[in-house]
Amino acid sequence: MAPAxxxxxxxxxxxxxxxxxxxxxxxxxxxxxxxQEVLGDPRTVRITGDATAxxxxxxxxVQGEKDPERHxxxxxxxxxxxxxxxxxDGSRALWLLLLPFxxxxxxxxxxxxxxxxxxxxxxxxxxxxxxxxxxxxxxTAAACEVALDLVAWQCAGTESCSxxxxxxxxxxxxxxxxxxxxxxxxxxxxxxxxxxxGLLWYLSHRTWSAYESQRPLTGADVExxxxxxxEGAGGESDAGGGERSGRGPDPGGLPVPSPxxxxxxxxxxWYGRRLVARLRAAHTAAGFLTVAAAVTGxxxxxxxxxxxPVPQTFGMAVEGAIVLCALVAVWTxxxxxxxxxxxxxxxxxxxxxxxxxxxxxxxxxxxxHASWSRPAWQSSGSLPGETAFxxxxxxxxxxVVALALVARALYRRTPEPRTILYGLGGPAVAMLACALxxxxxxxxxxRVADWLDGPGTxxxxxxxxxxxxxxxxxxxxxxxxxxxxxxxxxxxxLARTARTAxxxxxxIEAEYAPETSDEGRxxxxxxxxxxxxxxxxxxxxxxxxxxxxxxxxxxxxxGSWQSGTVPGRATxxxxxxxxxxxxxxxxxxxxxxxxxxxxxxxxxRRAYKDASARRTIGIxxxxxxxxxxxxxxFAPPCYAERAVPDLxxxxxxWTTTTPQGRLVISGxxxxxxxxxxxxxxxxxxxxxxxxxxTYGSPLERLYGxxxxxxxxxxxxxxxxxxxxxxxxLWRASDPIGGPVxxxxxxxxxxxxxxxKDPLVYGRTAELPLPEPILGHSDYQADPVxxxxxxxxxxxxxxxxxRQTGGRPAGQP
Length: 812
Known about the structure:
Layout: E1 22-27, H1 35-39, E2 44-49, E3 54-58, E4 76-81, H2 99-109, H3 119-155, H4 159-164, H5 182-189, H6 191-211, H7 219-222, H8 273-303, H9 312-335, H10 349-371, H11 386-413, H12 425-453, H13 470-511, H14 519-532, H15 538-563, H16 576-609, H17 611-624, H18 640-657, E5 662-668, H19 670-680, H20 684-687, E6 690-695, H21 699-706, H22 708-711, H23 713-722, E7 725-731, E8 751-755, H24 783-796
Parallel strand pairs: 1-4, 1-5, 5-6, 6-7, 7-8
Antiparallel strand pairs: 2-3, 3-4
Helix pairs in contact: 2-3, 2-12, 3-5, 3-6, 3-8, 3-9, 3-11, 3-12, 5-10, 6-8, 8-9, 8-10, 9-10, 11-12, 11-15, 12-13, 12-15, 12-16, 13-14, 13-15, 13-16, 16-17, 18-19
């Protein structure tokens, strides 16, 4: 951990007394790092920032600009440490339960590149937001299934179950108490899912204030400098947005970027307060309305029977109001999308106040309606939630298929060969988000049902307890089939990796010739390099799993709709063998679904107590929460909305106070993505004084392939042309980093690699002990790192005007 800052923190360094000062701004990668680790010195001082994210220097370098002679051999080093944004206190481990929301949010950013303003782009965004809304409804419906159906309706309405649960005594239908009537039990149980929705609203609001409320650079910040933007770097700046802002000055003081500049250079890209507030209101309302519909639906159905003491008009009025409010929530999600051309600072206060407030009022009316005395009403069987779950599953499948058609149409307009799954990466990931939501929904429902049922076979319930909806059992039955199907590509990848390792062996020995070969050493290096290449095969796994999930999910909906019973119990004459297989699949799947949910909870609890486990989960959030919350407001917060403005502001401030200074921003792994994003946000006059050094970078290998509209070849080429100079170091043994594949003749390009790993094959006089295979770590240990950094600093000064092609004047 970093030492606490002294009470009297030193001020930022004053302007230098001589020219030639150079600064290296280091940005670490995933998993977090202390300032001491980044700077390689136990004595560090915080220069600017807070306990969450800050810039540090070595104690001896605090006033480094005053003594440029001392740093003539190298730059002054600063470390921007942002690990507090993702791997702080243990409560963030509970974000693991928000994983489906995070995954569907990624699908929003994975659309293919398309011409700016294309209607298909906005349609893509609408479809993803609808899938995200369905996940909120699904999660709330699962909570209703547990609290209202399994506990309040089935168990409390069954004498044998309620007697074995003493804490349900006051709700038991056989105690003849005030709460014995089914409607009142449902109204009380509705507190649980309503509290869950309220908790999600609170977390979304709190995390926005804590992590994502940093305003981007404005005209006053850059003192009249020209805004950022990569000339000729085409890209979209209104991704999936329903509202389009006209061209004109940004409210923050920066002109609006032109359409031929990438979206990441837009002033409003890292400030989505208005969108998150609108989506939060719509999703909160949808959650409350789901609970209200479950409560009033049961009561209204009973009121339509003969002899009910409650007028039917009351229930009909509440149901009609719920439908009307739900349509407003859906309209809000569809109509009001993300706007990136301007810094969207205006809040729709009426909408974000009255929409969830109206939904909460309707929930209260539904509870009052259900609590009306109905002495003859008795609970039996299960609540009719089967249809709701089937419609949700069917709707998600239709939305994913429509999303795939739109994504494919976008890809055909501007095909890029390295885009994953030919543009279908977003729909595939959206399907995975739905699958995760289904596993968590089925897991919690079946786990609670098995607990209420007592000892017995998972998924098989006694006669007086119906259990969860049949569809969940059919979906659970598909899990063993999915795992068996997944074995095929896994075995293919293992065989391909072994074959690649054998093919690499003679190439590795030739690379290190004339050193004496060692079969074991060669085999180990070849195996690590072949394994590192598996990252490029991830799209194949995602495609297979998503396609199989869609087909098996459709089969589960059809099977549950046709049979109406759990698999293996149908009386269709299919034969005892098939029935036994189906029953075994259902039991295994039910156990796996319940185990999966328990694993989620146990992982979150372990991470809450164990710092190492919390660090591992922090790595997951480092990768998954880089993007703003554009599809789901309850996803874990976006740390880049704090980190990118921090880095851009620091670079602008340093170049302003150091007129003749040179700056290298140096990013490793995920830090290279933050560094590139910050450079995009710089005004042109600042960017021409900045060099970019990336190493172990996933900019093209992961982000360029999975998010082509934002990190594809056109935006990266524009970044190369607009920044003064850029070098990217990579290794063949690195499973994450890779080349950025930018090379313009006669420019030698950005990439330097593959670097040797290990540095030497065997023992030498300089290195008598075996050198490790570093893979993704410790790029600074390679002499090439210092050489390329020095070359960047030499290229930075003296500064020369840029030519149209983006290279310094005078360069051949």
